[in-house]
Amino acid sequence: MNPTPTPEELRELFLAASDPSTARALALASSFSLVVTVLWLVRRRSLREEYTPIWMGVAAALLVLSLRLDLLHALTRATGAWTSSSLVFFLGEVFLVAICLNYAVRLSRAGLQLKNLAQEHALLRARLDRLEGSSARPSLDG
Hints:
Elements: H1 7-16, H2 21-43, H3 52-67, H4 69-79, H5 84-136
């Protein structure tokens, strides 16, 4: 009977498994489609130019990792992950948290600007009402 493998032996077995060519092809197709989609959205002005470097960087990183799976395996070993797919999933989650934090900061800033604008509008409206009220009164000189 075979002894039960240790967790470290199982991890090494997962890391030593070969990558199917379909996974590489799917990763390459996804990388290229992301590049094309980002460029198309920028061209249509649906995505602002300030976000283009972020998304092109993500697409480039995916493309490099798709072409050089040995880098992905080295990063997987360095981080202590069990499989490359779990590392990619984790990095995706980190990226989404960073994007959410970025949007939270922008929304907070926009909310503050909106509050200040509403206050300025109220002050201007009150001043305009005062000016209209003083010009509508009959003159005492009369």
